[in-house]
Design brief:
The protein is an alpha+beta fold. It has helices spanning about 5-15, 20-45, 75, 145-150, and strands at about 45-50, 65-70, 85-90, 95-105, 110-115, 125, 130-135, 150-155, 155-165, 170-175. Helix content is about 30%, strand content about 30%. The strands form 2 sheets. Strands 1, 2, 3, 4, 7, 8, 9 and 10 form an 8-stranded antiparallel β-sheet that branches. A two-stranded antiparallel ribbon has the order 5-6. Strand 3 (about 85-90) and strand 4 form a beta hairpin. The chain starts with a helix and ends in a 7-residue tail after the last strand.
């Protein structure tokens, strides 16, 4: 590049309003950061999407997986009820989140089969302490739940599952069994 062409290029570069460009870039970066923060707060405290899979909630949840919407406000406000499917931090493994149905609240007497696969049908009754819930999988033959680890502190509930997004043939609100 000759000196004359370089000088012309430098002169054109000097006319570019770099302060305006950097201010616009900073505004866009700030907008992206605010959006990420808003999405995080919404997911953590209002509602989020989760993938549920496994045999413990058959037939309510498919073994191959259902994508569901989770209401996090209900857990924060203490308005989870009997029959609701909830996401819970597993009491026996805090790194794991499980989905189970609430079958008893604080003060409720819950009767359950000790070993559902046994022909003896031995049952046990437990009174759920205040501040706790009793959770069980819909498929009692293949579920680790309160029958193994006892009542679950209410603080471990992350949210209430209320809507199925996928698969599309089962799209809609999730039935809450209130006759438990």
């Amino acid at each position: 590049m000759s000196a004359g062409r370089f000088a012309a290029w430098a002169a054109r570069l000097a006319r570019i309003p770099l302060r305006d460009i950097s201010a616009e870039a900073a505004d866009r970066v700030l907008l992206v950061a605010k959006t990420i923060c808003a999405v995080h707060v919404f997911n953590a405290h209002v509602a989020s999407v989760a993938l549920l899979r496994g045999p413990s909630m058959l037939p309510s949840v498919s073994i191959t997986g259902d994508v569901v919407a989770v209401d996090r406000v209900s857990a924060h406000r203490g308005s989870v009820g009997v029959g609701d499917i909830v996401l819970v931090t597993a009491p026996d493994n805090p790194r794991k989140v499980i989905a189970k149905r609430v079958t008893g609240l604080g003060g409720d007497a819950v009767t359950f089969l000790v070993d559902p696969s046994s022909s003896q049908e031995e049952s046990e009754t437990v009174v759920v302490p205040n501040g706790h819930v009793w959770i069980q999988g819909d498929n009692i033959y293949d579920s680790r739940d309160s029958r193994q680890f006892g009542p679950v502190p209410y603080g471990l509930i992350q949210g209430r599952v209320f809507f199925r997004l996928w698969p599309l043939e089962r799209f809609g609100f999730i039935e809450q069994h209130t006759s438990l």
